[in-house]
Amino acid sequence: MSWHVVVVSSNAKVDFKMDYIVVRTLDDTKRIHISEIAVLMLESTAVSICVSLPILEKSGEML
C-alpha cells in the first residue's frame, strides 16, 4: 500500500463517501481510499469541503 499526497488546486468539491475521498471538478471525478492518503492539501479557496467530523476519528486524529 502506498501513501499519496493529494493536492486540490482548482475549483472542486471534496466529499467523503464509504471510506473514499471523492474530488469532483468540472471535468473529472477522482476517488482515493482514505487509507492511502498521507496528506490532503487544499490550495484554493474555491474548494468546497463536504465532510463530517467523524472522519477524523477514523484517521486517529482529534481536534
SSE topology:
Elements: E1 4-8, E2 12-17, E3 20-24, E4 29-33, E5 37-42, E6 47-50, H1 54-59
Give the end-to-end Cα distance, rounded to a whole number of Å: 27 Å
**Cα Rg:** 11 Å
Provide a count of the helices.
Answer: 1
- Give the helix/strand class: mainly beta
- Model regions low in confidence, pLDDT < 50 over at least 5 residues: none
Count of individual domains: 1
- Shape from CA axes? globular
Relative helix content: under 10%
Widest sheet: strand ordering? 4-3-2-6
Q: Could you state the order of secondary-structure elements as H and E? A: EEEEEEH
The main pleated sheet reads as: 4 strands, mixed
Q: Please count the beta strands (DSSP E, at least 2 residues each).
A: 6
Strand content: over 45%
Mean pLDDT: 82
